[in-house]
Specification:
The chain is of the alpha+beta class. It has helices spanning about 5-15, 20-30, 35-40, 60-65, 80-90, 150-175, 185-195, 205-210; strands spanning about 20, 45-50, 55-60, 100, 105-110, 125-130, 135, 140-145, 175-185, 200-205.
Length: about 210
């Protein structure tokens, strides 16, 4: 394998954090699962491997140094959540600008009555939200949430936070926000659809996309 191709594949793995060989086979579209295993074997000096229900890989120190990445995966925890996020990545046809768990910080200046800002007394309001993933496409800012073990009360709070920031997100990114929720059951899907009413949304179960 030439170095340019190797670096492209390592950069993809770095973008996703961790990835199963099965998922990598779908993303790379290089042929059979067995062929993808041969590709991974060639890249083994740059990868750490986890044996779970399936074969999972992520960059080691040498791999990060080769492509200039600072995204060290100190603890490959929440594997199921990360792999489910990869399923969403594949569902959306592998967006080039897919970013994982990127903090969105929106600052606004507080004003007092009658719109008057008093020098020395005005304050900055800072609102922060962290989607599980995000990407842009066709004029939309897709905000991706992966619901596998989260409590419904936490889902409700997260959706309310998005609704509060909806106009700010539109103004900040100059794109129309769209909340994309992926969950594990039809019951949760119906509940989340109700909670998302009033904003652009897409709610699916994982069985619909895998």
């Amino acid at each position: 394998m030439n170095m340019e191709r190797a670096e492209r594949i390592l950069a993809l793995i770095d973008q996703l954090g961790v990835v199963s060989v099965k998922q990598l086979s779908e993303i790379l579209n290089v042929g059979t699962y067995r062929h993808t295993c041969r590709v991974i074997k060639q890249l083994s000096p740059y990868l750490n491997e986890i044996r779970s229900k399936q074969k999972i890989v992520y960059l080691n120190k040498e791999g990060r140094q080769l492509i200039g990445s600072e995204n060290e995966l100190k603890s490959p925890g929440q594997l199921e959540h990360r792999l489910m996020a990869n399923d969403a990545f594949i569902h959306f046809s592998c967006p080039y600008d897919w970013r994982r768990e990127e903090s969105i910080e929106i600052k606004s200046r507080s004003s007092f009555a009658s719109g008057i800002i008093i020098k020395g007394l005005n304050t900055i309001n800072q609102k922060i939200i962290i989607p599980d993933a995000m990407f842009s496409r066709n004029g939309y800012l897709h905000l991706v949430e992966i619901d596998n073990t989260r409590k419904m009360v936490d889902n409700r709070k997260k959706i309310e936070s998005y609704k509060e920031l909806w106009k700010d997100l539109h103004n900040y990114f100059k794109l129309t926000p769209k909340l994309c929720f992926f969950t594990c059951s039809d019951k949760r899907k119906r509940e989340i659809e109700i909670l998302c009413k009033g904003i652009a949304n897409e709610v699916k179960t994982f069985k619909e996309i895998v």
